[in-house]
Amino acid sequence: NTSLWSVEGRTPDAGRLRAAAELLKAGGTVAFPTETVYGLGADARSTPAVERIFEAKGRPSDNPLIVHIADRAELASLTLPLEPAGAGALAERLMDRFWPGPLTFVLPAKPGAVSPRVTAGLETVAVRMPAHPVALALIAQSGCPLAAPSANRSGRPSPTLASHVQGDLDGRIDGIVDGGAAGVGLESTVIEVVDGGTVRILRPGGVTAEALREAGAAVVYDAVAAPDGAADAGAVQAPRSPGMKYAHYAPQGQMQLVQGDPAAVTAWIGSSVREARAAGERTGVLAFAEHAAGYDADCVLVMGSLARLDTAAHGLYAALREFDARGVQRIWAETCPEQGIGHALMNRLAKAAGHAIVRV
Ligand code: TXA
Ligand code: MG
């Protein structure tokens, strides 16, 4: 049976989190909100606890987990110093700037500090400090570094509401802390620090490349994480971040991205919808608010505004889940420029579509 606790997202009551923290201490699995998406947490030091995460999600065992901490001082117990020394200094500057926040660092793991199931046998460990009062309070109260992947069944869109977690994992995990809607709506940015001046983005996310550059870091990309790399299915063979190779975020319907001049996109999608409907299929369009009125399909969903891509990031996963709830079989989606959060948004859209992109 899965317990459910509702807490105030901004100022969670410690008493209300106590039972959840006790479950975590005892090796249980508890889902909780972060500023990106909901995570499914367990004590990162305990192999049986971490195994429960993999089992509940149906997650492939070669896909490592992010460890969440509430205090920078914990880093020293989880990781080894970064080489060369300049890289360590850059990592610290970026932590000063972006922690707590949606930036995950892949760092040399201290042997034995976390379960080998967390790192999937790699010599590195991914660590982040989430910027959500509920997540921070829960980590602190449990006293555990929490391994926490997104709290969805493997392959499904990440949950941005507690009800999404319930839909996927009710009965499979010990508890859910409902702290309202998650923030960004897309997962954290995963980086490696290459040297004293450069980071490599392994997964685009809540902290944009522009923000990293503003903080003084040069940015290079793993092939799967590059702008435009989103469209390149060939690049997904051997990503440095193992999770990037899995078909992910996918709705049950077949999805295609349509790129081009807005009027041409609307026309092309319109005729595709008519054809599919004539063939008896349930159709869906995922559009930006600016264009949504131009579509006629069984289910037209707005991910957010093209002028405010942060709103689209926030709404994407809920929209993908809504298509499933409405039994939509074919989905066409608009695209956006890969600037700012648009880069992470396009990366997730391309994955949801299995890299099916048509240029019109
Ligand atoms: O925003 C987030 O990061 C959310 C919230 C809950 O914190 N978590 C999340 O976790 O998205 P998950 O498990 O869905 O994605 C973790 C990503 C995967 O792509 C995984 O392969 C990568 O991080 N990763 C974890 N450890 C790694 C390591 N040692 N080296 C390279 N990539 C790693
Ligand atoms: Mg995930």
Automatic annotation (TrEMBL):
Catalytic class of the enzyme: transferase
Keyword tRNA processing part of the UniProt annotation: yes
InterPro entries for this protein: DHBP_synth_RibB-like_a/b_dom, Sua5-like_dom, Sua5/YwlC_C, Sua5_C, T(6)A37_SUA5, TC-AMP_synthase_SUA5
Alphabetical list of Pfam families matching this protein: Sua5_C, Sua5_yciO_yrdC
Positions of transmembrane segments: none
This protein's record includes keyword Cytoplasm: yes
Family: Belongs to the SUA5 family.
Protein name per the record: Threonylcarbamoyl-AMP synthase
Taxonomic source organism: Paenibacillus glycinis
